[in-house]
């Protein structure tokens, strides 16, 4: 079957040897059709790649001039800045956005992906949820040659274009900075190793220790959900470790800020007792006292690059399936929270 041809209710009816009226009623969940028949029709529709037409049924050019953006959460300044970069490029190109967020749950991500597919978006820009371990819900886009670009949270072994920073290098640089400040017992607080961003940051941390003849202490490796609430919990865990770490690399600024706040309640000095490096350069990194050393995460540029690649593909100027990984430059921003030796 030609993947570029839109599947209609008549194709489903022919496949199942039933009337198109029955198919139409079932797809609209009309209870006049038995639950069993409705289920079979929905399964056949999915198998054939049928999409509900949420826009004008007679859209001649088969374009909606709409881009779907699927993000993992809405509360961080990073995602806000990414959306700003995407919006700048898509608006200039005459495209509207449909924004959906998974709230860090694969189940929501699947529903959102299906919704964007049936909304007939012309392309998708996506960042994966915390627990996503299967990308089959994105296959309908590939099957229909709908361009799909991933950013930040990506699955590395896929053909689709990916826009990321060098998380490994950032993890290495952050840890090396703490070593250069004289820290000997460096802990890391990071997210699930299932996600590329956190696994690569951990590998950078691990290799920086190895290259400087420092052993990896498993007690100093803390896998966390990286929320505001968890910052205090992690602080109370770390301050009870024997011996207590003298430096911590927290791979999220919001968590790092609450981590510092909780340590200070227990009269633990930052950076004298524990030096801290965060990640993202969120606004909170300049509000917390002392100001937080962190990794710059250029969200606006990442959004611009992802959207530019997608629009270029839609305009026939490039093929996103022929590209691999686009790496956005990032750097360490040194502030007071890590300066044990007073040297930058």
Structure notes:
- The chain is of the alpha/beta class.
- The chain has 3 domains: 9-48, lambda repressor-like DNA-binding domains (434 Repressor (Amino-terminal Domain)), CATH 1.10.260; 66-163 and 299-327, Response regulator (Rossmann fold); 167-296 and 332-338, 3-Layer(aba) Sandwich (Rossmann fold).
- Helix content is 40%, strand content 14%.
- It is built from 12 helices and 12 strands.
- The strands form 3 sheets. The chain has a 6-stranded parallel beta sheet with strand order 2-1-3-4-5-11. It has a 4-stranded parallel beta sheet with strand order 7-6-8-9.
- The longest helix has 16 residues, at 77-92.
The domain count comes to 3
Count of beta strands: 12
Return the CATH topology of the largest domain: Rossmann fold
- Spans of at least 5 consecutive residues with low confidence: 54-60
Whole-number mean pLDDT: 89
- Which structural class is indicated by helix and strand composition? alpha/beta
Task: Explain the layout of strands and helices.
Layout: H1 9-16, H2 20-27, H3 35-48, E1 66-71, H4 77-92, E2 96-101, H5 106-118, E3 123-126, H6 139-143, E4 148-151, E5 162-165, H7 167-180, E6 186-190, H8 196-211, E7 221-223, H9 228-238, E8 247-250, H10 253-265, E9 275-277, H11 284-287, E10 294-295, H12 299-314, E11 325-328, E12 332-333
Parallel strand pairs: 1-2, 1-3, 3-4, 4-5, 5-11, 6-7, 6-8, 8-9
Antiparallel strand pairs: 10-12
Helix pairs in contact: 1-2, 1-3, 4-12, 7-8, 9-10
Task: List key phrases describing it.
single chain, about 350 residues, alpha/beta, 434 Repressor (Amino-terminal Domain), Rossmann fold, 3 domains, six-stranded parallel β-sheet, four-stranded parallel β-sheet, 12 helices, about 15% strand
């Amino acid at each position: 079957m030609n993947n570029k041809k839109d599947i209609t209710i008549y194709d489903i009816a022919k496949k199942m040897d039933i009337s198109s009226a029955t198919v139409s009623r079932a797809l609209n969940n009309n209870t006049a059709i038995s639950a069993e028949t409705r289920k079979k029709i929905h399964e056949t529709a999915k198998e054939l790649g049928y999409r509900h037409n949420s826009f004008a049924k007679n859209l001649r050019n088969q374009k909606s001039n709409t881009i779907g953006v699927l993000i993992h959460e809405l509360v961080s300044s990073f995602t806000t800045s990414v959306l700003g970069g995407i919006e700048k490029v898509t608006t200039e190109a005459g495209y509207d956005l449909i924004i959906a967020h998974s709230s860090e749950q694969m189940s929501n991500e699947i529903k959102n992906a299906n919704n964007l597919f049936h909304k007939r978006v012309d392309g998708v820009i996506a960042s994966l949820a915390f627990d996503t371990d299967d990308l089959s819900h994105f296959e309908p886009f590939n099957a229909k040659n709908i361009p799909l670009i991933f950013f930040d949270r990506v699955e590395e072994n896929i053909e689709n274009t990916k826009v990321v920073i060098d998380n490994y290098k950032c993890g290495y640089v952050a840890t090396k900075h703490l070593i250069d400040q004289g820290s000997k017992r460096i802990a890391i607080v990071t997210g699930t190793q299932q996600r590329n961003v956190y696994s690569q940051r951990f590998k950078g941390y691990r290799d920086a220790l190895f290259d400087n003849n420092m052993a990896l202490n498993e007690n100093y490796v803390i896998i966390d959900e990286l929320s505001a609430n968890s910052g205090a919990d992690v602080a109370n865990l770390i301050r009870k470790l024997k011996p207590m770490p003298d430096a911590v690399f927290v791979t999220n600024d919001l968590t790092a800020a609450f981590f510092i706040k909780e340590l200070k309640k227990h009269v633990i000095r930052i950076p004298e007792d524990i030096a801290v490096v965060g990640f993202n350069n969120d606004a909170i990194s300049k509000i917390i006292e002392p100001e937080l050393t962190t990794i710059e995460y250029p969200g606006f540029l990442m959004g611009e690059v992802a959207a530019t690649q997608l629009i270029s593909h839609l305009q026939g100027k490039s093929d996103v399936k022929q590209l691999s990984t686009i790496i956005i430059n990032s750097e360490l921003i040194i502030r007071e929270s890590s300066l044990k030796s007073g040297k930058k």
